[in-house]
Amino acid sequence: MNKKKILVTGGLGFIGSHTTVELFKAGYEVVIIDDLSNSQVFILDNIEKISGSKPSFYQLNMTDKKKLAEFFTKEKSIDSVIHFAAYKAVGESMQKPLKYFMNNLYSLINLLERMEVNDIKNIVFSSSATVYGEPDQLPVTENTPFKPALSAYGSTKQMGEDILQKVAATKVIDCISLRYFNPVGADSSALLGELPIGPPNNLMPFVTQAAAGIREQLVVFGNDYKTPDGTCIRDYIHVTDLAKAHVKSCDRLLNNEVQNNYEVFNIGTGNGISVLQIIEAFEKYNNIKLNYTIGKRRPGDAPEIYADVSRANKVLRWQTELGLKEMVTSAWEWQKKNNL
């Protein structure tokens, strides 16, 4: 029996690389598109070291219609796509919104055009909790109404979901959108992890770089929010658990189980954890002291958001297995091994 082939766009990135490993473990074949704008090619070898399998790799930017068309001429019989390829820095998106709209939306539209031409029916979309904006009630469920996006990045995810829902309504594709919360941690091998090029945009690389002495200190963006300790609260999820949700989604698509051509799931732990609690856990479980200071709020940050994940637990038959300890210790092992 032939293995099902999954195209992973942005497959050398943080979440994409971990998902590729889990797809191999689940018996899928994987082909990757990545333009290396926020990833590095050595990750290909590390994927092979962990999984024993090496994905086919094409370096191209998905806004390039000609190169994307050439790719689909070469790679036949793709059964499903997982679409990660997008710019994802909330702060930068506020300063360079056009860059985000151009890249994130054109790449998706070009991909959907090619999927239709090549009769590829299945797609998992990398969405985000940012689609909820600043919600009125917590935890957010999949039915929580979207509020205005707090960043251009969040806008691209809202628009991406809207595009996919309307295309799915024409029955040319089946789509699962995964709205994930805050991925952290690293593969237990310490061969894969978050690899920021330039200044990090997420909390955990800031924490690990401060611990390693690469940064003089960690700056916490604001401590005057209406939360118990004044710092932002997020739903942090281990990247390996998140990767496995994508495998479950591919299973569901390929088994033709998607209802009405389009489904959406929150992918988190269901627990809100503050920035200071992350810092405390990192210090405790890694036995290291962090030098941190409180800075100004960052534009685009919601004070508090965490998920109701009961739908993903029940319908996707997926649940998290790794906790806060594994999140902070695996991130530190990756940092030490790679001295990023």
Can you tag this structure with a few keywords?
two-stranded parallel ribbon, 340 residues, 40% helix, 17% strand, alpha/beta, seven-stranded parallel beta sheet, globular, Rossmann fold
What is the number of E strands? 13
- What characterizes the major β-sheet? 7 strands, parallel
Output the CATH homologous superfamily of the domain at 5-183 and 238-268 and 309-320: NAD(P)-binding Rossmann-like Domain
In CATH, the architecture of the domain at 5-183 and 238-268 and 309-320 is 3-Layer(aba) Sandwich
What is the arithmetic mean of pLDDT?
A: 96
Discrete helix count: 11
Stated plainly, the CATH topology of the domain at 5-183 and 238-268 and 309-320 is called: Rossmann fold
What is the CA-CA span between the terminal residues?
42 Å
The CATH class name of the domain at 5-183 and 238-268 and 309-320 reads Alpha Beta
Low-confidence stretches: none
Structural class: alpha/beta
Order of helices and strands: EHEHEHEHHEHEEHEEEHEEHEHH
Q: In order across it, which strands form the biggest sheet?
A: 3-2-1-4-5-6-11
| Helicity level | 25-40%
Coarse shape: globular
Keywords: Carbohydrate metabolism, Isomerase, NAD
Pathway: Carbohydrate metabolism; galactose metabolism
GO biological process, one term: galactose metabolic process
Pfam families: GDP_Man_Dehyd
Secondary structure layout plus pairing:
Blueprint: E1 5-9, H1 14-25, E2 29-34, H2 42-51, E3 56-59, H3 65-74, E4 80-83, H4 90-95, H5 97-117, E5 122-128, H6 152-169, E6 174-180, E7 182-184, H7 203-211, E8 218-221, E9 233-234, E10 236-238, H8 239-254, E11 262-267, E12 273-274, H9 275-286, E13 292-295, H10 310-315, H11 324-338
Enzyme class: isomerase
Subunit structure: Homodimer.
Pfam families: GDP_Man_Dehyd
